[in-house]
Amino acid sequence: MYENMKILILGAAKSGVSVAKLLANRNNDITLSDLNDLEENVKSELENLGIKIVITKNQCELINKSYDLIVKNPAIMVTSDIVKKVNELNLRMENEIEIAYHFLPKNVTIIGVTGSNGKTTTTTLIYELLKLHGKKVVLGGNIGYPLSSIINDIKENDILLLEISDHQLCDIHDFKTNISVLTNICPTHLDYHGNYEHYMWTKKRIFNHHSSNDLAIINKSNLDSLKITDDILSKKIYFNNDENYYKDGFIYLHNEKYLNVNDIRLKGNHNYENILMALLVLENFDINKEKIQNFLKNFSGVTHRLEYVLEKNGIVYYNDSKSTNPTATITALKTFSNPIHLILGGQERNQDFNELNEYMKNVKKIYAIGTVTDRIYEYAKNINIPCEKCYYLKDAMDKIFSNALSGDVVLLSPGSGSQDQYVKFEDRGDEFKKLVEKNVG
Fold first, then answer.
1. Residues 99-114: what's their mean pLDDT?
2. Residue 110 and residue 177 in contact, taking contact as beta carbons nearer than 8 Å
3. Rounded-to-integer distance, Cα 31 and Cα 207, Å
4. Core-most of 8, 55, 362, 385, by most CB within 10 Å?
5. pLDDT computed for residue 327 by the predictor
C-alpha cells in the first residue's frame, strides 16, 4: 500500500513534512506544496528524499486527475476551493493520520479522544496514568507529535493514545480505534465546516468501523453526543448518568464513591468530567486506585486550560487561552465566584456570545479583543456589563493592570479562535503570561 503512486501533499507543517518522509523511498512520485517557503534544512532533507517542493499561493492549480492521492493538511477548510476541486475530480483525499494508521504494527490498542472541549486534559490524564502504571503508551495526534513521525516508536502490543480534532477526522477512511472517547459536542469551528450539522457528523467518525468489541465513552448529559451515537455499534459506556458522575464533593464510578474532590488538585465540574472519562478508559487496563488518587493530589492540569499564572496584591491571573468557543468560556466562568475581569474575543467564527448570558453574573468588566471586538462591545452593552474596546491583548492588559483590585480574578478566556492575530492559541496564552509576569510578577 502507498507504493508506486503519484501523491500531492498540501501543507508543509509538521504533519505534511512527516507524512512526506513516511511515503518517500516507496517508488512514489511526491510533490509537497505550501503557501510559504520551508526552512532550508527541512527543504534539503526532503529534496534529498526525492520529494518535489512547490511554493504557491494557489494550490488549486496543482490539483489534476493525474494524482492517485491528495494528502490534505487538517487546516484546509472543508468549504475551501481545494476540497471542492478534489471532489469534482473524484480524487481520493486522505490525511496524515489515515496514512500513518496503515503503517502501524499488529495488535496495537488505539485510544482516540475527541470533543469540543476537554479533550486535551482528558488525553493528558489518560497518558500520565497509563505511564504511572508502567504501560507502554505512545502519545500523538493533535497533542504532541504527528502519528506519521512516531511510527517507529510504536511496537506490537503497545497502547497508542491519540487526541483527534474534528479537522483530523474529516479525511479518514480505514482508521479505527479500539476505545473512543467523545467528551462533548457544541457549536464551534463553523467557519471550517460550513454548518453545525457537518461538524457533528464529522465528530461521529471517532467511532469509525466500531463493532461491539470496541468501546465508546459518551457524555450522557450532552444531547448532541447522544444524537450522533444513537446507531453506533460500539459497547457504550456513559458518564454524567446515574452510574458515573460527580455529586456532593465525590466522583462516583459505577455508583460507588471513588474520589473525594477535596483530595485532588484539579477543580471544577469540567475537570471532574475529564477525570471520569480517564477512569472509564483506565479500568480496561490493570490499574491501582491508590496510585491514581496520589497522582491526582498533585496534577494541576494542562497549560492554557484554566492555568493558574500567579497571584499578586490579592489579584489572581488565569490563562484559559485554549477556550476557543463560548462553551469553554462558560466552563471557566462557572469556576469562579470572585469578581472577574474577562478578556473575550479573537477570530470571527460567528460564535454566539449570548450563550454566556446566564454565567456572566460575576463579570465585573469585559475587555474585547480580536476581529470580534465591535460585536462583543455590542453584546456587553445589551447585557449591561461595562466593556472596553481593546482589539489587542496588550491593550487589554494595560487597562486591567489599572482597573483590577484585590479579590478580583483576571481571566483570559476568549471564547474565540486565535488565528486572527496568532498562529495558534498557545501563542496567545504565552503572551498573556509574559505580560502578567512582566508587569506584576
1. 97
2. yes
3. 32
4. 8
5. 85
Distance CA 54, CA 301 (A): 41
Q: What is the pLDDT of residue 190?
A: 77
How much is the pLDDT for 191? 80
DSSP tally for the chain: helices H, then strands E: 15, 20
- pLDDT tens per residue across span 244-271: 999 999 999 999 999 999 998 888 888 9
Q: 252 to each of 41, 119, 235, how far by Cα in Å?
A: 52, 20, 20
Cell of 16: 505534511
Domain 6-94 has CATH 3.30.310.50: no
Domain residue spans in the chain?
Answer: 6-94, 99-296, 307-439
Asked if 404 and 410 count as a contact pair (C-beta separation under 8 A), the reply is yes
**CATH class held by domain 99-296:** alpha beta
Of 107, 108, 237, 110, give the one whose Cα is nearest residue 164. 110
What pLDDT, in 10s, does the model give residues 347-362? 998 899 999 999 999 9
The pTM assigned to this predicted structure is 0.81
CA dist 328 and 11 (Å) reads: 29
**Rounded Cα distance, 7 and 43, in Å:** 18
Length of the chain equals: 441
Cite the DSSP H helix spans in 152-285: 166-169, 190-193, 196-203, 223-228, 269-282
Tell me phi and psi for residue 364, to 5 degrees.
-80, -40
